[in-house]
Amino acid sequence: MSDKLVIAGKSYSSRLLVGTGKYKDFAETKAAVEASGAEIITIAIRRSNIGQNPNEPSLLEILPPSKYTLLPNTAGCYTAEDAVRTLRLARELLDGHTLVKLEVLGDPQSLYPNVIETIAAAKTLIAEGFQVMVYTSDDPIVAKQLEDIGCVAIMPLASLIGSGMGILNPWNLQLLIERVQVPVIVDAGVGTASDAAIAMELGCDGVLMNTAIAAAQQPVLMAGAMKKAVEAGREAYRAGRMPKKLYSASPSSPTAGIIGSPRS
C-alpha cells in the first residue's frame, strides 16, 4: 500500500495487526501470520512463552523480532497494577522493548475494558518511558483523555472480544476518529472480512484481530482474506465514496444521445 501506517514514529506498509493466540500449533500460527501480511503482532505475555519458560518452545523462534514488530499485551489483567507489572516483565524479556499494548479488563464475562484502571496504568507506563497502544471503549471522551496522557494509538473495541459481532456502533467510532490525532485501530469484535473493510472505510487507521482468523475453519485462508479486506477498505476510504441519495435514481451511463431521445 502506498500510504503508510505510522505508530510511535515507525512506518508500516500493512494496516492489519494480528494476534498469536488460539491457533492449534506454532506451524499454523506462523502460516496465518505470514498470510495476513501483518508487520505488527501481539503477544499475550501471561499466555505465551517468549523466554520466561526456558523449558518450553518460544514463540520468538517462529516469529522473530528481526522480522516483526512485537506488541506485548496485558490480556488477562484486571487491575492497573497487574498490567504495569506484566509490561515491565515484557520489557525485560525483550531487551528494553517499549512499544506495548495495554488492556485492563472489567470482568471475565464481557472482557469489556475498565477505563478507570486503564487510564491509571497508562499514566504509570508512559511516565516510565513505554509507548502505549491502548485498548479502550468507543467513548470519544475517554479516547481523547488517553491521547492527552500520551498514548501513541487508541484501540477501541468494535464489539466484545472474541464475539465476532462486527462493528456495532459505527457512529461512535466516527466521533472518536474525528476527536483524536493519533492512529485509531479497531481492536476486538471483527468476525469476517467485511467487518474489517467497514472499519477501514469509516476512516480507522488499522484493524487488530486474533479470534476472527484463529477460529475460522481455515485460518490461513481467512488471514489472506483479512489482508485483502483491510487494503480494499483503506483504498475505498481514500477514494471517497459517492454520496447516498434517497429516492433519487441515477443511471450509470450517460442519457444524452440515446436512440429515441429528443434532440436538443
Give the key terms:
264 residues, alpha/beta, five-stranded parallel sheet, three-stranded parallel sheet, 10 strands, globular
What separation lies between the terminal Cα atoms? 47 Å
Q: Tell the overall outline.
A: globular
User: Low-confidence runs (pLDDT<50, min 5 residues)?
Assistant: none
- Helical amount: 25-40%
Count of β-strands? 10
| Biggest beta-sheet profile | 5 strands, parallel
What's the helix count?
8
Run of helices and strands: EEEHEEHEHEHEHEHEHH
- Beta-strand content: 15-25%
Strand order, main sheet: write it out.
Answer: 5-4-3-10-9
SS-based class: alpha/beta
Rg of Cα set: 21 Å
Average pLDDT over all residues:
90
Description of the molecule:
It is a single chain. This protein has 264 residues and is of the alpha/beta class. It is built from eight helices and ten strands. The model has no long low-confidence stretch (mean pLDDT 90).
Give a concise summary:
Helix content is 35%, strand content 16%.
Task: Describe the secondary-structure layout.
Elements: E1 5-7, E2 10-12, E3 16-19, H1 26-36, E4 40-44, E5 69-73, H2 80-93, E6 99-102, H3 115-127, E7 131-136, H4 140-149, E8 153-156, H5 170-179, E9 185-187, H6 193-201, E10 206-209, H7 211-214, H8 219-239
Parallel strand pairs: 3-4, 3-10, 4-5, 6-7, 7-8, 9-10
Antiparallel strand pairs: 1-2
Helix pairs in contact: 1-8, 2-3, 3-4, 4-5, 6-8
